[in-house]
Amino acid sequence: MTGIPAAPTDPDDPLTSVNIADLVTIVRAAATRFVMGKAGGEARTHITVKGVADFVTEVDTNVQSFVKSRLADRYPDIQFLGEENGEQDVDFDGLYWVLDPIDGTTNLIHDYHHSAISLGLLRGGETLKAVLYQPWSEEMFTAEAGRGAFLNGKPIHVTDEADMSRSLINVGTSPYHHELAERNFDIMRRVFVDSADIRRTGSAALDLAYVACGRADGYFEGSIKLWDYAAGRLLVTEAGGTVSDWQGNDLGHRMETAVLAGTPAIADLLRERYLND
């Protein structure tokens, strides 16, 4: 966990009014209303194709509209960036929300019950607050910069694993970029041979959350978007782990990037042995 950041000196800074409990309430309400139950089941069958293996359902758009509206009502001075509807025009030097209304849309379409709503509050390239909710398991992950990471209100921490042979590694296939498949699967094969096992969940946000809470020791993927990692990276770093690109650089607010997360030792091993050869 990083040191507790200084409180904003400007009393008019909208960050001072942001309460993590408010964000939890908004995200949980969105999931209850639009993801779970009959309404969500019907909406997930209304699908639009955005690109190669890239889909959007009415659940995605309904969640985004709901969360955006509630945030605007509560925090009108904070900008909004969301995955859907082209809502990505913000001043990155200011304070802004980053929402993935459904991370794991393909899982949702197939009724796989492994998707999440991911909400981060950023300034510049730093995530300050994060809420990530898996509605089927009712797992609410939260973090605030300098104040730790939590799962359903209980502190979480990455494992202390440093041995690749004992490690469980989450992997992503970068499904929107089939041209990366040959290299990606070669890396995965080599990691699989050297580790305890690998997992592919279909949700980058949950991959990061699972590193944060110790279910996995590392995670890597060749290409994800800002809304995929904006909340999850704070969970990992506040839980004692590291998040970077494959070269070890900070992700900042890149709209698309490779990602590597894990315990400090396992992240170093993945970078040195597999990702930069």
TrEMBL record:
InterPro entries for the chain: IMPase (IPR033942), Inositol_monophosphatase-like (IPR000760), Inositol_monophosphatase_CS (IPR020550), Inositol_monophosphatase_SuhB (IPR022337)
Cofactor(s) needed: Mg(2+)
GO molecular function, one term: metal ion binding
Residues annotated for Mg(2+) binding in this entry: 83, 100, 102-103, 228
Entry keyword set: Hydrolase, Magnesium, Metal-binding
EC code(s) of this entry: 3.1.3.25
Entry protein name: Inositol-1-monophosphatase
Single Gene Ontology BP annotation: signal transduction
Keyword Metal-binding: yes
Keyword Hydrolase: yes
Catalysed conversion reaction: a myo-inositol phosphate + H2O = myo-inositol + phosphate
Entry-linked Pfam families: Inositol_P
Top-rank lineage group of the source organism: Bacteria
Family: Belongs to the inositol monophosphatase superfamily.
